[in-house]
Design a protein that fits this description.
This protein is mostly helical and 309 residues long. Helix content is 70%, strand content 0%.
Length: 309
């Protein structure tokens, strides 16, 4: 409870956090790279949520419509990005492919961030055997390469022709999320250990505050900044990993539409030489999206770290 004799004393523990976020927002707004990356991400998110906005004026707005008589035709006024080997419009499928990438990237980021943060908070705040057990568990998962672990997990639970779209997405999200949490856990543990000795945390403990209140009201607001920065970068990484797994034929699979599936369909040597547009446009959208998230994460990281300003 705040001391009535000391105005604003109840918010003292949040002071550093509020100052950090306000300073970070001011720093980010002053950097053109923030607006460029945020603008690109906004466009991709709109493509994922309402792809019809981008295909409304397209000559072929339906990504599921195929015309074999137009297979492999080059880009033209009738097909802005051309047609693929099955006669699908590449532009429409590239636009609709953003949904799968965003769903997997966002889902995997949420899973890894929540799981890693909870484990990191327990290890950092309670210490002792909690720290030993959880840190060693993280080391075990850290020893498994993320891509290789994802391949093994998805090979163990393969897709079939009857697998629903959301089930396919969920498999990829869980495979990446369960294997990708150790880095977040280590970062959160380190942040908690830095905040834990501060006076406002010790004062709350001396006044008898419960651990849950101390963590959520005092520690988490001051420890979460580096986790948010890394999670933003990770989101771009998970989008790239989804495309890689789909390219290998073990992530998303037709009839699902994704950039990885499109790149896989265009990966034959003959197709790359005769119809390069099949590979060019999905790869370009994928690369720009991943780059935008990485750049945004770098800007957020620099803004939240006073030493890098």
């Amino acid at each position: 409870m705040a001391d009535p004799a000391i105005p604003g004393s109840g918010d003292a523990d949040l002071g550093p956090a509020r100052s950090l976020w306000s300073d970070a927002w001011r720093e980010m707004r002053s950097r053109p790279l923030f607006w460029i990356s945020a603008g690109l991400i906004l466009v991709v998110v709109l493509m994922a949520i309402v792809p019809q906005l981008f295909t409304f004026f397209s000559p072929q707005p339906d990504p599921q419509y195929a015309d074999l008589s137009k297979a492999r035709l080059a880009p033209s006024a009738q097909a802005w990005f051309g047609f693929d080997a099955q006669g699908y419009d590449v532009y429409s499928r590239t636009i609709y492919g953003a949904r799968s990438s965003i769903l997997v990237g966002l889902g995997a980021t949420v899973v890894t961030t929540l799981l890693g943060s909870v484990i990191g908070i327990f290890a950092g705040y309670f210490g002792g055997w909690w720290d030993v057990v959880l840190s060693r568990l993280g080391d075990v998962f850290f020893a498994i390469p993320l891509l290789l672990g994802g391949i093994l997990a998805l090979y163990t639970f393969p897709n079939t022709l009857d697998t629903l779209y959301l089930v396919m997405v969920g498999k990829v999200v869980l495979a990446l999320g369960i294997l990708g949490w150790p880095s977040i856990a280590r970062l959160m543990r380190s942040s908690v250990l830095q905040v834990k000795p501060h006076d406002f945390v010790q004062a709350a403990r001396a006044l008898g505050a419960k651990p849950g209140r101390i963590v959520f009201s005092h520690i988490l607001p001051n420890a979460v900044a580096p986790v948010i920065a890394v999670a933003t970068i990770n989101l771009g990484m998970y989008i790239a990993l989804e495309a890689t797994l789909s390219f290998l034929g073990i992530g998303l699979a037709p009839p699902a539409i994704s950039w990885g599936v499109a790149i896989s369909d265009a990966s034959g040597i003959g197709l790359v030489r005769s119809t390069p547009h099949m590979l060019l446009f999905p790869s370009l959208f994928l690369s720009v999206t991943v780059l935008a998230f990485i750049l945004l994460g770098e800007v957020v990281r620099d803004a939240l770290d006073p030493k890098l300003r």
